[in-house]
Amino acid sequence: MKRFIAWARVSSNEQELRGHSLDVQEKSLRDYVAQLDGEMVRMFRVAESAQAPGARKIFREMLDFARQNAAKLNGIVIDRVDRASRNIYDGAALLELRDKHKLKIYFASQDLDLDTSEGEMLFTFLLGIARFDNRKKAEVVVASMRKRVESGLFVGKAPYGYENYRTPDERSLVRVNPDEAPQVRQIFELFAFHHHTLASLQQRLCELGIIYKPDHPDFPLSQVYDILTQRSYIGEIFYLGQWYPGKQEPLVQRSTFDRVQTLLGGCVYRSHQMTYASELITCGHCGRPITGELKTRSTKKGLQEYQYYRCCNYNKAGHPRIRVTEQEIDQQVLGLFDQIHIEDEEVRGWIVDFLKTKAGADQQANREKLAQLQRQETRLAEQENELLQMRISREITPEQYAEQATRLRDRAAAARLQIEACGLERGEIADLAVKAFELSQNLRAKWLTADYAEKRTLLEIVCLNFSLTDGKLCAAWRKPFDVLAETAFVGFGIPIRI
User: Fold this and answer.
1) Which of 101, 180, 262, 350 has its CA 20 to 30 A from that of 51?
2) Binning pLDDT at 50, 70 and 90, where does residue 299 land?
């Protein structure tokens, strides 16, 4: 009896609906082998596109099996040409089996004899048609996806916080997921303004009972990172390595998103809202920056958060393992302020004049910087418009437009943030410092009620730099505060570096 192997492939559910399912093909192939008075030695089946890795692997296995057992086989049976392959390379491999190993190729649903010149020509022609059809479909799909992107729509599964849905006319759109969106906003809020690392944020979400999915309640660390870096939440969509403007409702403010990216790009413990972090203080032992970290402890009153400051080399062998609480540093700073508490009106007037002069210079520099940033913002808007016109006139490719547009939007957002910062009324902070020295006995109360930005400004006005040695804060004073501190040194017990 003749011996055959068979190949069956289906690439989509649509083909099953059209009667080309694997079961239908297999029955057709077995019936055809029976007509040839033969038996089927082996059936190779695959339910993937011809170009999919799985389909390619099984097709190569079929070719290898045919080569190794060519002497025991009479041929290969395939339903149709396009079920075997949709490119000329696989077609050439089948012809090699025919020519080199004398294996006849049969097509159960097509009257095609490869042993004739006409049959081989028709086989090559049908392969070309299949390849053309495959590439045409791919081009249509790519064009359709690009059209969706250009119209601001997602081309695949929506990210966490959104959900896909179909309109009555079968359009695929995206909307905000009412359960997940609040969690996305809270994740950004916690990381941006509550001094968390990725690990501590993951733990905090668990403590707050925020569930990722019903079947997977805990947020994976990788998912937390993906959420924090997902630009879809500021109204953009991702396609082919680029970000494009989207139509979905943003879940996060651009300023918050940019803040999170800044924090992610630096030390995991760095927080611009921790008064003594952000390289304000250096370590007296090694000169590295003092960083802040947030720790959670279980007490009788429940979970409590504590802010600590330590050297970046804290865990390095041989380095003193000393951590200082924010409250301890606060007390030392207040001690520094007590050192420059004076009653002499002449000296006080000298200090006030200095602060007023410095504040005026800062305000002038701030106005100049603001004007420069506004000119930069205007120029970036002009560049965005020019880039759009170049895209409309097809002077640049969609990929070039997407890449450059993303870069311009990021620069424009950064400029707007700086403009907002420059636009803040800094006169209030300067007045606070002047009044603090005019009424120096009230400086302690002013400090205790000041926010982060005001505290940092006061420290920068009064001191050049700080170092922390064995838990003790050492300050290098600005002039004329160095004279004040030296005069008032005796009796306070806090070291001053002049």
Assistant:
1) 101
2) low
Those residues whose C-beta lies under 8 Å from the C-beta of residue 164, and which sit 6 or more positions away, are 154, 157, 158, 172, 173, 174
* Closest alpha carbon to 229 in 274, 190, 201, 263: 263
Angle between helices 88-101 and 53-68 (to 10 degrees): 10
Summarised one tens digit per residue, pLDDT across range 385-399 is: 888 888 788 888 888
Tell me phi and psi for residue 143, to 5 degrees: -65, -40
Tokens in use for 201?
């944020």
Residues 430 and 457: their CA atoms lie apart, in Å, by 8
Q: Please tell me the least confidently modeled range out of 228-237, 332-341, 480-489.
A: 480-489
Q: What is the DSSP string of 271-316?
A: -TTSTTTTTTEEETTT-PBEEEEEEEEEETTEEEEEEEEEETTTTS
- 314 vs 274, higher pLDDT: 314
The per-residue pLDDT of the chain, averaged, comes to: 79
The structure tokens 């302020």 sit at: 337
Amino acid at 463: C
Rounded to an integer, what distance in angstroms lies between the CA atom of residue 409 and that of residue 245? 10
- What gap in Å lies between CA 41 and CA 69, rounded to an integer? 11
For the cut 80, the answer to whether the pLDDT of residue 174 exceeds it is yes
Q: In what order do the strands lie in the sheet with 281-283?
A: 281-283, 463-469, 472-477
Band of residue 176 on the pLDDT scale cut at 50, 70, 90: very high
Which backbone phi and psi does 306 adopt, to 5 degrees? Answer: -130, 140
Q: Where are the beta strands (DSSP E) in 383-458?
A: none
State whether the Cα torsion 259-264-270-274 is positive or negative: positive
pTM (two decimals): 0.39
